[in-house]
């Protein structure tokens, strides 16, 4: 065990969640339907026509009614920050109304009350994979420029209401994920196999403009706040030293790096513009759009990190395997989780250094964790989970965060994904558990919803209280 720590004294330790994966109460408090209400199996299957009884997200883990209990447990771990999202359709049930739903706003007032009670800094995501269903069905989601105005109105309501209470904001969750999941990430109703490349990239542009407008609004209404973008980070390594493989890995990485480039530098990079030309894409970009992007860049860059991939230019080596479910090819040097996500702690250090060298903006790791099938057992009369595998995973990644800080990278904080068990976004399962807190609910909807502390609960509490000094190398 180390006796010192590279983590700064003000490092923001905590955990992260999303409204659609924890709140439940999908039809309470004046909430409208969101795209999540017609995605009972996550991104794996097509949307349904309406809500179905097999959608675990209708109840999720019932945070809507149990938020005080859960935030108290986060405080017991010593959280300095709690990342959660606001459900757009809880504030604007349809998404295009002129006035917000007061009952929805009041719920988040109560959540913030509990955070303040326990001295926990809120980190709020404005849009996290839950576009109001009405905007999807009526406008085809972010393909339509009208959503820019609807989103700006929504963001301004949030800044006006909570601007003095929330210091850290994220505009969109994993904004680059729209490339992989147009419905979940972009609220796009057109099926992925029928969506034109031009419409997809126009939707991306519309979201980027909306993000800039939100940043502009925050600086008007909440000038003390810090606004960040949020991207999915996934380093791509060349499968071999062949220069063509190196170029293939660079091309793959740039599909993600472009989003940070635009948020930080305020303009489209040349390689991105070439990619659009090569695909025959002509976007509608106004002079006002260009000015907004240039003038309203972000204060910090936040990201999720779960895995790396390898890349090759040799199609004969492009074999579909468990370790490349998010693209790329399997890396033969790495192990994978139960869900095929390759485990690469050093990749987190690589990403941190790459982003810092590229953008020179403070970085915030707002998602990282291990999804696994946990077994509830009884130890000394107490129900718990002996999740040493999760402790090992998180320890090894956090050690690499410390190495990156020692490298000179400015890292603001770390929020472990699914700090309490939640419904998985990708598979809509509860059996894919990430949390330090076990929630007694199963994939078939049975369970008491009781909360139990896992072994990792006490481990993370020690990591936080020691500011990382308890991590083992």
Topology:
Elements: E1 12-16, H1 19-22, H2 63-77, E2 81-85, H3 88-91, H4 102-117, E3 121-127, H5 133-139, H6 146-162, E4 168-172, H7 182-186, H8 197-221, E5 226-233, E6 236-238, H9 243-265, H10 270-278, H11 287-295, E7 300-305, E8 309-311, H12 345-359, E9 363-367, E10 377-379, E11 382-384, H13 388-407, E12 411-417, E13 437-439, E14 451-453, H14 455-465
Parallel strand pairs: 1-2, 1-12, 2-3, 3-4, 4-5, 5-7, 6-8, 7-9, 9-12
Antiparallel strand pairs: 10-11, 13-14
Helix pairs in contact: 2-4, 6-8, 8-11, 12-13
Organism: Cryobacterium arcticum
Protein name: 6-phospho-beta-glucosidase
Pfam families: Glyco_hydro_1
Describe the structure.
By secondary structure, the protein is an alpha/beta fold. It has one domain (12-465): TIM Barrel, CATH 3.20.20. It is 38% helix and 14% strand. The protein has 14 helices and 14 strands. It has an 8-stranded parallel beta barrel with strand order 1-2-3-4-5-7-9-12, surrounded by 5 helices. Strands 6-8 form a two-stranded parallel sheet. Strand 10 (377-379) and strand 11 form a beta hairpin. The longest helix has 25 residues, at 197-221. 52% of the residues are buried. InterPro entries: GH (IPR017853), GH_1_N_CS (IPR033132), Glyco_hydro_1 (IPR001360), Glyco_hydro_1_AS (IPR018120).
